[in-house]
Amino acid sequence: MRRLARQRPRFGCERIFELLISRGWKVNEKRVHRLWKQEAMQVPKKQRRKRRLPGHSDHGCIRYRAEHKDHVWSYDFVTDSTEDGRQFKILAVIDEYTRECLALEVGRSFTADDVVSTLRYLFALRGRPENIRSDNGPEFVARNVKRWLKQAEVETLYIAKGSPWENGYVESFNGRLRDELLNGELFLSLEEARWVLDQWQLDYNHHRPHSAIDYLTPAAYAASLPASVRATPSLQQASCNTLGSLT
Q: pLDDT tens for residues 41-64?
């Protein structure tokens, strides 16, 4: 338990129990809970004010929920800085239904063309989502991005301005990313940040149990879903050619 808690310092008793079970330990949940309290291993509560307001936009995650894999993706930016104080941005893309992290792109800055380039790669690799949700950041509402997504037959779901809770899935993901990684890392360069984020993305998708999907990992949950149409190599190439022509 202590070893797992050191590896996952923001995990609580319930998640640690699920990790023990997944690794073959035959333990009772009540015993784990008793030892957790006895050894004072509780995760300190963060004191922060929460804004809990009902969504009022038809495009928000409260009213328009993902119903299957690749139904709704969402994306957003997270900011951090390297040791020299220079800021960089992380473009995070997730599948709201499976909770998979599809991309963590790192750059000092991002343009609309950079956003399109990331999406083009994901569409060719995985296929196109039906919808993509975002806030009204300039990189997402740019004319080039709107036109490209329209030609790709992907609906844009822009949340109401000043309402980040309406993009709750990616906001929650960003919180986990900052809490479990960014707050504990000091990056010397962009190259180091890219490498560390790539490793964290793999761990998040394939090893980190997610409470919202019965403590499965996002990759395991996606694999458990009914088979869907997936792009074959020939279809992927056709997709690349088609999507490339959209720009």
A: 887 666 555 554 555 666 666 677
